Every structure is written in C-alpha cells, then in structure tokens.
C-alpha cells in the first residue's frame, strides 16, 4: 500500500513540473502575489475589424426652380448648422491596410408638396469630398482603411471631415416650397482593389 502512495507522488511530480512544493512562488507570510501580463496582439486573418462610429448629420441643398429642369447643386450645409457633426469616423483594430473600406450609396429622393407625396426622383450623381457615390443598390467605395490611416500601418480612430457634397438630378415642374428628401447609406465592406481598363 505504501508503494502505491509513493508511486503516485512521483507521477504527480512529473506531471506538474517535476517537483512538489509546500508553498507556491510569490507567497510570503501568507500573502501571495501573481503577476498579470496583457499582450496586445494583431488579429488573426479574418478578424480584422473596421468599425463605423459616426457619419455626417445632414447634407442640405437649396435651389431656385430651373428653366431646363436640371439641378446640379452644391451643399449649403454639411452636418449641423454650426459646422459640427460633419465627419466620417472609423475605428481600425489592425495594423495592415487594404483590408476594409467604407462604402456609400444614395437613395432616390422623395418629393413632397405640402402634405402630398408626389413620388420619387432619381439621383443622377452625388459626390462627397469630390468622390462619386452611386445610386440605390450600388454602394461604392468612399474611403479605404489606407486612406483613413493615410497609408500608415497603425490602429485606432480615424476621421475624414466632409467639406463638400454635390447632387444632380432632373425633375420638371418643381415649385417653391417643394421638398426633396433622401438618405446616404454608409456600410463597411471588404477592400476591393481598383481596376483600370487598359
């Protein structure tokens, strides 16, 4: 019976580091300490995340009625009336670039006259900081992670302030006090290299 107990002790010592000790390291006078270490590491392939944190509050345009029914307008207000809330902000948890991008698409415009809904108007073109945004269902890359980080391979929050926006559409018989409303939808997608036609 004693032989079995001794054999068990030897096996236990082998499995747990080769020696049995009455007290663990870091214990002195019944006070023990354990070191804590946190290592910040790069995400594994596929775990890189670009998070959209903020987008501009408004793009406001104004126009007189045009003679040819064509409207090509520049925003008179971006964000709020004090010039704030005009930024696209993302957080990047990886150092690499060309992994993700922010995409944007514009909806059709809803035309209202008083309380009456008069249908929708197709947007022919829309730009944000002189970058073209396509129509509904055609989200286009607006900024890549590399553009946000200005090419540096770092992590953190990155901001692009929107200083200009334009819209173009064609609509006959608009009248003063008519309102046209729509939305820009921003999404995150995987980076898509730009292809050039030879």
Structural features:
198 residues, mainly beta, Immunoglobulin-like, 4-stranded antiparallel sheet, 2 helices, 17 strands, disordered N terminus
What oligomeric state do these chains adopt?
single chain
- Write down how many β-strands occur, each being a DSSP E stretch of 2 or more residues: 17
What is the number of domains? 1
Could you tell me the radius of gyration in angstroms? Answer: 30 Å
CATH architecture label name: Sandwich
Number of contiguous helices: 2
- Report on the biggest sheet: 4 strands, antiparallel
Helical content (DSSP H or I, runs of 4+):
under 10%
Secondary-structure class: mainly beta
Beta-strand percentage range: 35-45%
